[in-house]
Amino acid sequence: MTAADFQHPSTCTVHPVQAADLPAVAAIHGHYATRTAACAQEEALPVAWWRRRADELAGLGLPFLVAQLDRRVIGYGLIAPWKPGAVYRHTGEVSMYLDPAWVDHKISQPLFDRLLAEAATAEVHQLIGTVGHWGPGADRAIAAARRWGFTQVDVLPQVIYAHGRWMDLHLLQRQVPHHPKQPE
Asked: CB neighbours of 34 closer than 8 A, spacing ≥ 6?
């Protein structure tokens, strides 16, 4: 199935990343790293780096998920620690990237819904999202984050220098709905 044939996001499956998914994850990320300012890297990261990242997040009990259609990875999302330090252990930074051919096909919603559910299970209380303002794709990412309940809390002017220009960084935040139990 191609992106042009796709009509129903409900046929997309979301599951924890597996070793066999990592080459596709690396390729999706590599597209954004080398062609946009959507991520912090300007070069593609090797599969070995993604394997270490998956192991690190699993060790912390944080989700790293992929969206698949017909056994093809068409997107991924993860929640990583926001900052080092024990006081931030219940705050996570969400990252989601879709295969460029699938950006406008509403597959991000089931991926985000699953990330949000798994964030609650992992006792994440707040999610932070960051979007570098690099063009129309950034505007779409900010609009999607707002649909998912994120509020823009600040804009850091010209803190990103990528692909030969300065860009702003938008900071977004939302609370994770979960049980009222306080963390220990």
From this structure: 42, 43, 44
